[in-house]
Amino acid sequence: MKPVWFTFLNGSDIEQLEPTDIEILDAVEEGLRAQGLGETVVEPRVHLMPDPAFNGHFNVLRGYVAPLALAGVKIVGDYVDNYRTGLPSEMALLNLFDPRTGMPVAVLDATAITEMRTGALTALGARHLARPDAKVLGHIGARATSYWNVRLLDRIFDLTEIRVHSRRPESREAFAERLERELGKPVIVTEDWKTCVEGADIVVEASRLERPQPLLKTEWIAPGALVVPYGTNSAVEITLTDIMDKIVVDDWGQAHAGPFGALRAHVDSGRLDDAGLHGELGEIVAGRKPGRESADETNLFWHRGLSLSDIALGAALLKKAEERGLGQKLRFS
Q: In b/e form, how buried is each residue of 219-239, taking b as 16+ CB within 10 angstroms?
């Protein structure tokens, strides 16, 4: 067999590429559009829980994006206590393959990719489902993906009021300081959930709960708002979906499968089903379904995380790395 080589991009390579906000948004949007046009294959994510004592698990995401001629598998660990040892809670590897032959194309440190594509999905959901004049953000959670949520939402909406809250005071204070430094605008740190989200135009719930708890009250959601819940364990009340005009997901196949997710109880109880679903974000991006249609709509976008977003952003970074001569060529065989 002739020699086979693949590209390896480590975390330093990804950092040196310095992807712009627009590059990130455009790449993730390309994956969504392909999904909406039926040019992708998405397998529901699966999970590996090595031992309950470790307080963490692995997510395995799989997909194929025909316009990019790439298939991909990402494995990401989700370990909520990693902050105690100075490690990120989520660390990932993305494997890209030639779908025609199955040969490896690249392996990428996908830790930053996971953070960036998650924020992009939140922001793109808001672009289509929030009011265009939305200016007040209430953000629960301060994990790594949270930074990109706020940064990319601000890129699209030029927010005038940013409120943040998380369980640990030192975490939310550090998060606010980073946002103020990077965005050049003040950030309000709140002491509780209610103060953070009540009356906000866009509410993002990215908490890290150890077990489901209805901490985000439905009564706090303002008419005309967009709510984006994506915590692993539900933090919303079962009544949240009752007030929504449109409920949109990133992928219904994985939204109603598996043990985790912010609306798990809503799916399991039959409160959220195919009939009550407006559609997938990719269908809206591709123009096959409408996004927000009026200022008084109250909408919800629930995303579990798309392998397609990882593949699309990974492909864009791989192309940029080739142009800049970054990465290592490793021999596979």
A: ebbeebbbbbbbbbbbbbbee
**DSSP reduced 3-state for 300:** strand
Q: DSSP for 7-73?
A: EEE-HHHHHHH---HHHHHHHHHHHHHHHHTT-EEEEEEEEE-S-GGG-EEEEEEEEEEGGGTEEEE
Say how far apart CA 120 and CA 38 lie, in whole Å: 21
The pTM of this model reads: 0.94
Q: What is the CA radius of gyration of the chain?
A: 19
- What pLDDT digit, counting tens, does each position of 17-74 carry? 999 999 999 999 999 999 999 999 999 888 899 999 998 999 999 999 999 999 999 9
Per residue, the 3-state secondary structure of 71-123, as one string, reads EEEEEEEEECCHHHHCCCCEEEEEEEECCCCCCEEEEEECHHHHHHHHHHHHH
The one-letter amino acid code at 319 reads: K
Distance of CA 215 to the CA centre of its chain: 21
Q: Running DSSP on this structure, what letter comes out for residue 330?
A: E
Are 41 and 72 contacting, i.e. CB atoms less than 8 angstroms apart?
A: no
Dist. CA 227–CA 231, nearest whole Å: 12
Whether 216 and 140 have beta carbons less than 8 Å apart is answered as yes
pLDDT tens per residue, range 173-195: 999 999 999 999 999 999 999 99
**DSSP secondary structure letters along 235-247:** -B-TTGGGG-SEE
